[in-house]
């Protein structure tokens, strides 16, 4: 079972992103402040849950969190500032929207650009260790997945409703054959699918 938070002296927000490694679409991030007594036997790293579990947990998080917010950075901004900085910016935009100002931030991963003067800790695989980061991973992924499903209707041949914009073999092949859409990240390399180890579907 995951631990509620990293430290207990300060109001803590967990942060995580989704879509960093995609060829198309925005990167999303979420920030979540959970009650100290919040518990869940299901909540975990979003990648370890089914779609149904993610949606179930999103409802729980949105109802029971002290506050939560989601931010995004589109593909054009990603091309301008690079994906690492875009991931940081998406997290900053999510934190900007929190109704309660956090006193401490816990970030999934090993790097982060400081937000204001709020202290933070970077935690590798933090979404599988702390509930507040796991909650942020759920919100970031589900909101991004819904966005990708919506734009998939404009370009159904890219199969974004299933691959979510990740560089699957099928996605790369159709991108080579038909060209890039306005949603693609132009600074990302689209190599021939025979050299790619990604599966054809991403859930």
From TrEMBL:
Chain sites annotated for binding a divalent metal cation: 16-17, 108
User: GO biological process annotations for this chain's record?
Assistant: DNA replication, removal of RNA primer; mismatch repair
Cofactor annotation remark: Manganese or magnesium. Binds 1 divalent metal ion per monomer in the absence of substrate. May bind a second metal ion after substrate binding.
Q: Which family does it belong to?
A: Belongs to the RNase HII family.
Superkingdom in the source lineage: Bacteria
- What keywords were assigned to this record? Cytoplasm, Endonuclease, Hydrolase, Manganese, Metal-binding, Nuclease
- HAMAP family assigned: RNase_HII_B
Q: Does the keyword Aminoacyl-tRNA synthetase apply?
A: no
Domain RNase H type-2 positions: 10-203
Q: Coiled-coil regions in this chain? A: none
Question: Mind naming one GO cellular-component term on file for this protein?
Answer: cytoplasm
Q: Which PROSITE patterns match?
A: RNASE_H_2
- State its cofactor: Mn(2+); Mg(2+)
From the Swiss-Prot or TrEMBL record, give the protein name: Ribonuclease HII
Q: Which reaction does it catalyse?
A: Endonucleolytic cleavage to 5'-phosphomonoester
> Could you tell me what this protein does?
Endonuclease that specifically degrades the RNA of RNA-DNA hybrids.
> Which EC numbers does the record give?
3.1.26.4
Entries under NCBIfam families matching the protein: PRK00015.1-3
- Primary subcellular site in the record, as a coarse category: cytoplasm
Report the subcellular localization. Answer: Cytoplasm
What GO annotations for molecular function exist for this entry?
A: manganese ion binding; RNA binding; RNA-DNA hybrid ribonuclease activity
Q: Which Gene3D superfamilies match?
A: Ribonuclease H-like superfamily/Ribonuclease H
């Amino acid at each position: 079972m995951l631990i509620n938070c990293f430290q207990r002296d300060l109001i803590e927000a967990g942060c995580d992103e989704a879509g960093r490694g995609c060829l198309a679409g925005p990167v999303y991030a979420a920030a979540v402040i959970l009650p100290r007594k919040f518990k869940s036997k299901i909540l975990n790293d979003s990648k370890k849950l089914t779609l149904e579990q993610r949606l179930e947990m999103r409802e729980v998080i949105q109802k029971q969190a002290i506050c939560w917010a989601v931010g995004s950075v589109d593909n054009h901004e990603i091309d301008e500032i690079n994906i690492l900085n875009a991931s940081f910016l998406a997290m900053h935009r999510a934190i900007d929207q929190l109704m309660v100002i956090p006193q401490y931030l816990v970030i999934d991963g090993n790097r982060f650009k400081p937000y204001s003067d709020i202290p933070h800790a970077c935690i590798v695989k933090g979404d599988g260790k702390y509930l507040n980061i796991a909650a942020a991973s759920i919100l970031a992924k589900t909101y991004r997945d819904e966005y990708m499903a919506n734009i998939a209707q404009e370009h159904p041949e890219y199969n974004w409703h299933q691959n979510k914009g990740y560089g699957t073999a099928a996605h790369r092949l159709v991108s080579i054959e038909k060209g890039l859409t306005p949603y693609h990240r132009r600074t990302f390399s689209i190599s021939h699918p025979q050299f790619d180890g990604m599966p054809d579907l991403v859930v």
